[in-house]
Write a structure and sequence with these properties.
This protein is an alpha+beta fold. Helix content is 23%, strand content 30%. It has an eight-stranded antiparallel beta sheet. Helix 1 packs across helix 2.
Length: 335
């Protein structure tokens, strides 16, 4: 039987992520949660795990349930015990964000290493961001995270008008290119992030990239932030404004700053799918909503919404009041 060459590359990318990002060992047990739209992606992870000598490998399909899901199915909730690695690969839908947040926290409560990939595409599996030298990204991620040591705040600007100041004192950065036990990260991987101080964000963000679960937009989005709260959304696209206003007011903390992220994966492209876009170089993103898994994060919203912008300049102010530009027009500068 002739093997589809694209599927073979998908398997190689899955094996690479399982081994390099999730540190999967021979004999580790694997659970894959998928739906009918991602069967071949799930199969690639199964094959990759077998090549690594996985122990038990099981699949659970969300397609047996009415979508969008709001709660964890009882059968799924009782399955997590005993798995060392869990892969989430299913369709991405804005209304399912609260379900995905609940799913992730339930999975890591069993000390699993979780690769979270809602909306991952076949193209991501065989055209770049999954087949990358993660060891090289780890080096770059550690160098950039170290540049934020002892930081008081960051000032983020872009040529399109972004001008946002965030407090990040005692908010350590993390990366998804090395996922430890009891934690999760996205696949494809390749970013660093922190949880900004929830009441110390002020300014404007001009979104010229993509938005989580919505994609890329023809019209710019202007977000006004006051004391960490998203207080105004503006755009020529009034329908998107209305949708975003609904998505960021699901609960009391849904419009409170939750994340600052920076992309580092050299093979990630800007496709309109935030799962890949937020890993691309020369980009940064902020999110509003849940950050309870991040260092000293205090936002317990049931949702999390990302907004990406291109070619930022980032200036760090340290606790000794020294200022340093660590990124200029999207290019990391650590000299």
């Amino acid at each position: 039987m002739q093997i589809d060459p694209k599927f073979a590359v998908m398997v190689a990318g899955a094996k690479n992520a399982l081994q390099s990002v999730l540190s999967m060992n021979r004999g580790d047990n694997l659970l894959i949660i998928l739906d009918d739209s991602r069967i071949d992606v799930g199969q690639a992870f199964l094959e990759g795990a077998r090549k690594l000598g996985a122990g038990k490998a099981d699949v659970y399909s969300l397609s047996a349930h009415v979508r969008p899901l709001m709660e964890l199915p009882d059968k799924l909730k009782s399955m997590f015990r005993g798995y060392d690695v869990i892969i989430n690969t299913f369709d991405s839908e804005a209304k399912e964000t609260p379900f995905r947040v609940k799913l992730l926290y339930e999975e890591i409560s069993y000390n699993a290493k979780v690769g979270h990939a809602p909306g991952i595409t076949r193209e991501m599996m065989y055209e770049g961001p999954m087949n990358v030298d993660y060891k090289d990204i780890v080096i770059k991620a550690k160098q950039l995270m170290a540049a934020f040591d002892d930081a008081e705040s960051v000032q983020i600007t872009t040529k399109l008008g972004t001008n946002l100041r965030l407090g990040i004192k005692n908010r350590g950065f993390q990366t998804d290119v090395l996922i430890p036990e009891g934690s999760f990260g996205n696949l494809p991987a390749g970013e660093i992030w922190c949880a900004p101080e929830e009441d110390k964000g002020n300014g404007v963000v001009v979104v010229d990239g993509s938005i989580g679960d919505i994609g890329s937009l023809k019209d710019l989005i202007h977000l006004t932030v006051e004391d960490g709260e998203l207080v105004k959304i503006e755009s020529a696209n009034k329908e998107i404004v209305k949708e975003l206003e609904e998505l960021t007011t699901i609960d009391r903390m849904a419009n409170i700053i939750g994340e600052l992220g920076i992309g580092l994966n050299p093979n990630a492209r800007l496709t309109g799918n935030l799962l890949e876009d937020e890993k691309a170089g020369k980009t940064a993103h902020i999110a509003f909503g849940n950050n309870m898994d991040m260092v000293n994060g205090c936002n317990n919203s049931k949702t999390h919404r990302d907004f990406l912008f291109k070619e930022p300049t980032i200036v760090v102010t340290y606790t000794n009041m020294i200022r340093k530009t660590i990124m200029e027009d999207g290019v990391v500068s650590l000299g």
